[in-house]
Amino acid sequence: MTNSFPSPTPRSAHSSQVMTDPSSHQLAMTIAEGADDRKGVDIVILKVSEVSYLAEYFVVMSGLSSVQVRAIAGSIEDKVETDLHRLPVRSEGKSDGSWIVLDYGDVIAHVFMPQEREFYDLEAFWGHAEKMRFSVAQLARD
User: Fold this and answer.
1) DSSP per-residue string spanning 9-55
2) DSSP helix/strand/coil, 112
3) pLDDT for 92-115, tens place per residue?
4) pLDDT at 5
5) Percentage, residues of the chain above pLDDT 70
6) Radius of gyration of the CA atoms of the chain, in A
7) How far is 12 from 114, CA to CA, in rounded Å?
8) CATH code for the structural domain at 22-141
């Protein structure tokens, strides 16, 4: 694995606002769907493009056991590869199964065990980012 980071999100020449790519939103939703397919708990999408150069979105969810965390991560990888023909540029944590990170460049998925999610509390750390709760009903609107 390399220690490279995704390149910064492009900014408009006439604005300090970050331009959000619609395909990034689609990727975030596909990741959330993959998590939901394996009963991911409390799926949250954070639009971090306005506050960070790391990515456009973080998708955060929990699994109730290390086996479920790994299954959620596998489901996300399968769904994104099947639907969008993309693979993560980097993944970490699969052997431990308490916090798996799938980095797709513009979207980063974080699959946590509940105690790790509570400890690291990414939602609070990135509290100034726009927060969207994912639900299957949301898919009908998008």
Assistant:
1) PPB-TT-SSBPPPHHHHHHHHHHHHHHHHTT-EEEEEEE-TTT-SS-
2) strand
3) 999 999 999 999 999 999 999 999
4) 35
5) 80
6) 14
7) 38
8) 3.30.460.10
Token pair recorded at residue 111: 């699959």
Within 8 A by CB and 6+ apart from 14, the residues are none
Asked if 93 and 82 touch (Cβ cutoff 8 Å), the reply is: no
Half-sphere exposure of residue 10, counting CA atoms within 13 Å on the CB side? 7
Question: Residue 59: which of 75, 43, 79, 76 has the closest Cα?
Answer: 43
Q: Which amino acid is at 133?
A: R
pLDDT per position as a tens digit, 18-42: 445 679 999 999 999 999 999 999 9
The two beta strands, 107-112 and 57-62, are parallel
- What pTM was estimated for this model as a whole? 0.80
What is the rounded CA–CA span in Å between residue 72 and residue 77? 9
Token reading at 44: 């949250």
